[in-house]
C-alpha cells in the first residue's frame, strides 16, 4: 500500500488496518516523510514506537538522529485528550499522522453522546487542518463505531492487505 503519493495538502486520507497487522507497515513511509521535513504524530492507541521509526530511517541509509528531532509525538489516552491534541495542532504545511484514531472513542466510561460530540468536533478540526496539512488517519478495521462517518469525510481510503503470519497444518 503506497500512501506517500496521496499525502498532499488538502487531503484527508484514511487507512483501514487489519487488527492483527498493527502499524509496523507504516514505518518506512513515515521514515520517508520525516526525511522530507517536520512530521507530527498523534498516537491514539499508544502503539507508536520511535525506535522502530529510527530503524526504518537507518535502513534507508540515513543517520536518524537529526531526523527524529523533527518528529513531534503526542499521545492521547482519552477522546478528550485527542480533541485537545487536534485543537492544539498549528496549521502548518507539514504532515499529520494520527494512529489508531478511533481507539479513544471506544471508552465506555465516556457517555455515547459525549463521544459523538467529541468525534464531530475532531472531524471538523481534521477537515480544517487538512486544508493546509496532509493528513493520514489510521483506524483498525474492527472499530465499527464512527468508521462510516470518518470514511464519508475522507478524500482517499487505503485498506491494508491482510497476510496471515501462519499456515494451518493438517493434524492427521
Give the tags.
Rossmann fold; 6 strands; 6 helices; 172 residues; six-stranded parallel beta sheet
CATH superfamily: P-loop containing nucleotide triphosphate hydrolases
* Main pleated-sheet profile: 6 strands, parallel
Number of helices: 6
Please identify, by name, the CATH architecture: 3-Layer(aba) Sandwich
| Helical coverage, percent range | 25-40%
Number of strands: 6
**Whole-number average pLDDT?**
84
Task: Work out the count of structural domains.
Answer: 1
* Measured distance between first and last alpha carbons: 38 Å
Amount of beta strand = 15-25%
Q: Helix-strand pattern, N to C?
A: EHEHHEHEHEHE
Q: Which regions have little confidence, pLDDT < 50, spanning 5+ residues?
A: none
Q: What general form does the structure show?
A: globular
Computed over alpha carbons, the radius of gyration is 17 Å
Q: Quickly give the structural class.
A: alpha/beta
Amino acid at each position: 500500500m503506497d500512501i506517500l503519493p496521496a499525502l498532499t495538502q488538502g487531503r484527508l486520507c484514511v487507512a483501514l488496518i487489519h487488527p492483527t497487522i498493527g502499524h509496523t507497515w507504516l514505518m518506512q513511509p513515515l521514515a520517508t516523510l520525516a526525511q522530507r521535513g517536520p512530521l507530527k504524530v498523534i498516537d491514539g492507541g499508544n502503539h507508536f514506537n520511535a525506535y522502530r521509526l529510527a530503524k526504518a530511517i537507518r535502513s534507508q541509509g540515513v543517520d536518524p538522529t537529526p531526523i527524529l528531532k523533527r518528529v513531534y509525538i503526542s499521545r492521547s489516552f482519552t477522546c478528550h485528550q485527542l480533541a485537545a491534541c487536534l485543537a492544539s495542532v498549528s496549521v502548518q504545511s507539514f504532515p499529520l499522522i494520527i494512529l489508531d484514531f478511533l481507539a479513544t472513542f471506544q471508552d465506555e466510561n465516556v457517555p455515547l453522546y459525549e463521544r459523538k460530540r467529541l468525534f464531530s468536533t475532531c472531524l471538523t478540526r481534521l477537515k480544517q487542518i487538512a486544508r493546509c496539512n496532509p493528513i493520514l488517519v489510521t483506524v483498525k478495521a474492527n472499530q465499527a463505531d464512527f468508521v462510516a462517518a470518518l470514511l464519508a469525510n475522507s478524500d482517499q481510503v487505503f485498506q491494508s492487505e491482510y497476510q496471515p503470519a501462519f499456515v494451518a497444518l493438517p493434524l492427521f
